[in-house]
Amino acid sequence: MTIKTVLEAVHDAMQEEMRRDETVFVMGEDIGARGGVFLATEGFLQEFGENRVIDTPLAESSIAGVALGAAMHGMRPIAEIEFGDFIWPTINQIVGEAAKVRYGTKGKLNAPMVLRAPHGGGVRGALYHSQSVEAFFAHTPGLKVVTPSTPYDAKGLLKSAIRDDDPVIFLEHKRTYRLVRGEVPDDEYTLPIGKADLKREGSDVTIITYGLMLHHCLEAAETVEMDDIDVEVLDLRTVRPLDTDAILATTRKTGKVLIVHEDNKALGIGAEVSAIISENAFEYLDGPVARLAGPEIPAMPFAPPLEDMYMIDSEKIANSIRQLAEY
Amino acid sequence: MAEQTSDHENGAFERAVRAAADSGITKPTISESSSTNQESSKTRLSNKKAPDSPDLLSMYRRMVLCRTLDERIWMLNRQGKAAIMASSQGHEAGQIGSVEALQKGYDQFYIYYRDLAVLLELGLTPTEIIKGFVAKEGEPLSGARQFPTHGAHPEYGIINLSNVVATHIPQGVGAALSAKMKGENRVVIIYFGDGASSAGDCHEAMNFAAIHKLPVIFFCENNKYAISVPLKNQMAVGSVASRAEGYGMPGIEVDGCDIIAVYEATFEAAQRARSGQGPSLIEAQVERYLPHTSDDDDSIYRSQEEIEEAKKRDPLKMLKDLLYSSEVLDEEQEELINKDARQIVNEATEEAEDAPYPETDDFFKHVVGDSSV
Ligand SMILES: Cc1ncc(C[n+]2csc(CCOP(=O)(O)OP(=O)(O)O)c2C)c(N)n1
Ligand SMILES: [Mg+2]
After folding, report:
1. Best of A27, A30, A86, A87 to disrupt the B interface by mutation (most B CBs within 10 Å)?
2. Statement: residue A76 has pLDDT above 70
3. What is the per-residue pLDDT across A106-140, written as a single tens digit (0 to 9) for each?
4. CA–CA distance from B259 to each of A36, A112, A152, B106, B318 (Å)?
């Protein structure tokens, strides 16, 4: 085991896969000489050369579209979108096209590509360097959407994403990049896409979450120990496909579920999780499925008091837990 | 605007222009792509109306102020007091020269994050600008909801909606379409970088503007880098302006460090736009002296020698030399100008730092309007 940051885990996963499989290559803005704006591809140009480390023009639609084309013809591209906030031009190629490759050719073609992007806020990034983008992709059958929160998960899941035969949107929370450290095995491993992970066991209240919020939820779970509330925390890790079995199992166990995400609430991941619970485990519930999510404003504002008001923290989560526990 | 009057004859500008000619400062060159235009580039240049009263000394003063402000914001960032900063150092002549050729308060300016001098030229005060960088109450463009320099100031014709590169290019074309539909004589200038020129939005916007002969000036501030990506990875052609022919508009390459050349090229393009002849693409070759932003480390991808070489074309120095050689500026006056700028920026810094953060009571306001139809 070695202690790594999320950023290092992402870097290592790509590097190992590029060493293992010659069809894997990376493309994106500033990923060459600069090694990426976050240094996720640091040293790649030197190790793998310009043919497999492509510094692209500033044009996200073609980053996605070219990756898709290469993927349909025997390559395994990892396309990087510099910030999730700039991912919208790829919707045309990813939601419109990549997601429908397999279905629309009746299985004759498939697109083993990864579209990676740092996303999320709490970094004083304002409206255009803070957005959560998962729900837009997660709505789309034909895609897989992964949202890791720890170095261990990020590495194992990214390796699986690269080896996956379908398009995977891999969303790394940029605040976790250098902030979150954790043990990563030195030996090779992968983790299954679509499987949630129980990050904390408890018996009174379940929190279902993913991404950066996992860490705030774990903190809040500790805080409410003082109130004698025993919290279970389920990390979804993948938001499409959702791990229905894990969601229902924890619901049956505690009977009280709080869903937490940074993305805004309406029509978000929490809405789907909540619907899955009420459709399948209604009789196990001891209270309404609660959601704590980002506010209904278009994006995260810049000035510190405004950003703080937007972001969910462990205090806000602890309050929601107490409310639900009392129900 | 822009009628030549005789009181310019002996003005600073005339003297400076003459001195410029002597000192070999480059005139705007029209790239071959302008062949779509009937007139030869030579005729058009010699027919050019002289600028209204572009007092080069005043332009110099404003350039010094911009440089001083820029350096101050960078320093505040380094002290951990100011947010991320994309420096305008090396771009100032392109920005000031182009605004000077247009009508403030009437024309529309679709700018991007590096256009500090454009903001100053159009009327934002140094205090207001620094407030953006320290996210304080009274920031005029977005109320500190956005990154510094982003938002809009409709009275000044400033629009900088987002950080998303190139999205503003079709928006600017839409503004020009509106001007045409409403029969206004407004010009829209759209500032963008060499990197932005690769975006589909840029291509689509230029095509649309040319088809409809819209009053647009596409003003590319080519500093040869998009963060770390050098031109050779950005485009296979040698110049952005050379693409203009493919859209059916003139493409003009100009030394963006030469304020007079920029002025002339922009003035010319504005005349074309106002007289219904359609858009122009100006490529101002500028330099970026600092890393992409205060978050960037350019030593990973750019040599110090290259930057030193670029500094030989410092627009501030070029204009200063011109003013010295035409005896419009001397050491005493130069020091006075520098001192004034420092004082303005000192006061602005203090005022901005002392201002409070915005209140949170309007956090949920302005998501959609109140009217229901
Ligand atoms: C659509 C989009 N993609 C990526 C980015 C990240 N980014 C910010 S500035 C920049 C480079 C822009 O370069 P250029 O257009 O040449 O302008 P310059 O900064 O050099 O003046 C990039 C890639 C962005 N803001 N928007
Ligand atoms: Mg550039």
Report:
1. A30
2. yes
3. 999 999 999 999 999 999 999 999 999 999 999 99
4. 35, 51, 55, 22, 9
Partner-chain residue, chosen from A37, A58, A303, that has the shortest CB–CB distance to B198: A58
> What pLDDT shows up at residue A108?
98
- Summarised one tens digit per residue, pLDDT across range A165-223 is 999 999 999 999 999 999 999 999 999 999 999 999 999 999 999 999 999 999 999 99
Each residue's pLDDT tens digit, A256-307 = 999 999 999 999 999 999 999 999 999 999 999 999 999 999 999 999 999 9
Strands B108-110 and B151-153: unpaired
The helix or strand, by DSSP H or E, that contains position A292, with its residue range, turns out to be strand A290-294
Which H or E element spans position B45? helix B41-46
CA distances in angstroms from B152 to B120, B147, B173, B287, B361, listed in the order given: 14, 12, 17, 26, 21
Cβ neighbors of A325 (< 8 A, separation 6 or more) are: A204, A205, A224, A227, A229, A256
Do B171 and B161 meet the contact criterion of CB atoms below 8 Å apart?
A: yes
Residues linked to residue A144 through DSSP beta bridges, in sequence order: A168
In the beta sheet, which residues pair with residue A55? A28
DSSP string, A202-268: -SSEEEEE-TTHHHHHHHHHHHGGGGT--EEEEE--EEES--HHHHHHHHHHHS-EEEEEEEESTTS
CB A256 within 8 A of CB A327: yes
CATH class of A2-184: alpha beta
Which chain A residues are closer than 8 Å to B363 by Cβ? Answer: 295, 297, 301, 306, 309
Whose CA is closest to atom 18 on ligand 1?
B193
What are the beta bridge partners of residue A53? A26
Q: First-to-last CA distance in chain A?
A: 42
- ipTM topping 0.85: yes
Ligand 1 pocket by Cβ (under 6 Å): A 29, 58, 60, 82, 86; B 114, 163-165, 193-196, 221, 223, 225-227, 288, 292
For A130, the enclosing helix (H) or strand (E) is: none
Residues of chain A with CATH 3.40.50.920: 197-326
Q: What is the CATH architecture of A197-326? A: 3-Layer(aba) Sandwich (3.40)
Domains and CATH numbers, chain B: 2-25+45-354 (3.40.50.970)
B127 CA → ligand 1 middle, Å: 26
Backbone angles phi, psi at B284, to 5 degrees: -95, 115
The span from the CA of B93 to the CA of B287, in Å, is 10
A52-70 pLDDT, tens digit per residue, is 999 999 999 999 999 999 9
CATH 3.40.50.970 domain residues, chain A: 2-184
- B56-78 mean pLDDT: 97
Extended strands (E) in B32-187: 108-110, 151-153, 158-160
Secondary structure (3-state) at B159: strand
Q: Which of B217, B196, B319 is nearest to B261 (CA)?
A: B319
Q: Which ligand is nearest to the CA of B196?
A: 1
Positive or negative torsion for Cα B306, B308, B309, B313: positive
